[in-house]
Amino acid sequence: MSGALGFLRAPAVVRLAGVAIGVVFLAAALGKIGDLGAFATQVHNYRLVPVWSENLIAMTMPWIELLAGLALVLGVRPRAGAVVLLAFVLVFTFAVGSAWARGLDFECGCFGKASAATVGARKFAENVGYTLLAAIAVLRTRPRAR
Amino acid sequence: MTNDSGTGPETGTTLARGVLLIVAAGVALGIGFNALQHSAGSQRALAWVGREAQLASLEEVSAERPTGGVLEPGTTAAADGADPGPAGGAAAEADANPAADGPRTSEAGTSSRPAAPGSGPDRRETPATRAAPAGEAAPAPAPGLPPIPDTREPLEVQYSTVKKFHDAGAAVFVDARSLDEYAAGHIAGARHLSADAVFEDPALAAGLDTQGRPIITYCSSADCNLSRDLAFALIEGGHRKVLVYKAGIAGWEAEGQPLVPGAAPGGASP
Q1: What is the extent of the structural domain holding B119?
Q2: Strands across the sheet containing B155-156
Q3: pLDDT digits (tens, 9 = 90+) for A13-39
Q4: Which residues on A lie below 8 Å from B17 (Cβ)?
Q5: Given CB atoms, is B67 within the 8 Å cutoff of chain A?
Q6: Domains in chain B, number
Q7: Number of domains forming the structure of chain A
Q8: Does residue A143 belong to any structural domain of this protein?
Q9: pLDDT at B44 > cutoff 70
Q10: Quick check: ipTM above 0.85?
Q11: Is the domain of B21 the same as that of B74?
Q12: Which among A105, A127, A132, B184 is placed 20 to 30 Å from B161, CA to CA?
């Protein structure tokens, strides 16, 4: 266990995971910013937040994703970026899972209009994968010298 | 940054500060970006406060078309000439945004809960009072009852009209609330079909036998959305004359109308 964790905490692994999840979120953020109205509709479809707050979420969330993704890709405050993205990906996984459980069938809105993927088992599995990536990126890297 | 990857004592604070910075900057950027779009008059700007799209009202639609039972294809409620007074609201938007109407886009088509983006005037769906390709074989409406156009969006309906339909037994009333709430008291004759059940099994919507009568959905009060959600689901299920009694149970009681307890429809109207 400690061996596996040690490997995951290697600076290169943490960095790589961070860049990977960062790139995913950059793409997602740009897709959403490109059509905020569509994203607002998708937020609405989940029916998880009060209607009045849907637009505020739709207009700010993609920008937070963008900054956190940039932080990870550029290596500026990467752990802070990773924490933000981990929080997002957990929320998304919950949202997709709950929509899937409720039998709702709509575009997940995960990448804005760029992806027509609907919520479901596959999207859920994808989100679990992202969660793992973000979790690795959050890890404190192993000190080089002990 | 070295703090972020190290094990120094201030790592926690630095991390929290970084997270806060990213979130605050993101929120500021998002709000600023939207404000810019607003000031530029962009169609893409989002309303600051989201809200449900307004439904057109049956009373307004039938006032504009006193004789027409079915609107012509391509005719929106607002396209029928001069618009008297407050009827303007939703109808004028239909005129301003005709492209949002018509065949469902892939976006809405894959959704079991279509429409209602609630994202400001520029994103609203229009009141699609268009003729449906295959309308139900509607019997002639009883005298005094307004004709209901076949629509692809539910129409809101006021108490006075609801009462007329109820007294004439000319509409199928559907209670969109939970079974417990229904059993505690419902409009006499109303059937129970919870919005949640329909979302789990859309076949329930298609299976509702109306014998050609219009459907009136309701929930607890003007603040609930179940009646509206159910109405959209019923239209998805193929029904074409679907009305929403927005005031719901609260409005019905406020007018002094009795409620019928029990799990059976009860009352005179089927």
Answers
A1: 58-254
A2: B155-156, B242-244, B215-218, B172-175, B191-192
A3: 999 999 999 999 999 999 999 888 889
A4: 80
A5: no
A6: 2
A7: 1
A8: no
A9: yes
A10: yes
A11: no
A12: B184
